[in-house]
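Note to self: the last two entries modelled the partners one at a time, which told us nothing about the interface. This time every component goes in together.
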Amino acid sequence: DAMVIQNPRYQVTQFGKPVTLSCSQTLNHNVMYWYQQKSSQAPKLLFHYYDKDFNNEADTPDNFQSRRPNTSFCFLDIRSPGLGDAAMYLCATENRDGNEKLFFGSGTQLSVL
Amino acid sequence: AQSVTQPDIHITVSEGASLELRCNYSYGATPYLFWYVQSPGQGLQLLLKYFSGDTLVQGIKGFEAEFKRSQSSFNLRKPSVHWSDAAEYFCAVRTGTASKLTFGTGTRLQVTL
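The predicted structure of the combined assembly is written out below.
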């Protein structure tokens, strides 16, 4: 009964070739997050949506974009992946009702060749 | 801005032994505090959280954590570790509803049989 689903599980792309990662949720949560986690490092927040409001972290590169066409889906677009963008990308959701609990997907491991 | 420090990068314990993972935070007031666990190649799962009230918090899988304001700490403990507890453990903090979740750098737990 996966609640936050990320596809694909593994993604391989070429240097400079645009790639899209997807996240879907069955929880009807109003907030969706994208985190980047490099090997042996802490997850780093890239941006999040609160309903349709997009909130970008100040240090997120312009190369990263996101779309949330509806409550259930959120996409991470990397316009021109570089070798340094190889990482695990984690999607998380939250219902901002004071519960403060984030639900994470299993992640997409991105490799850049 | 808030920050989280996990002093121990890697800890090894024997199965059945007790465990304590350290976490210190930096913030002017009492933040919301969390411990997450991440198995290899997986997303993050919430173990427990502290918002207010009783400073000893019980979580899933037999884990507990104690908030100590005087030490700005929120250490995670388990009286008897199982081999399945081997994973990466992240302490995290947020300063309130709608603030971002900031993770520590993680502690990798290895369990020997």
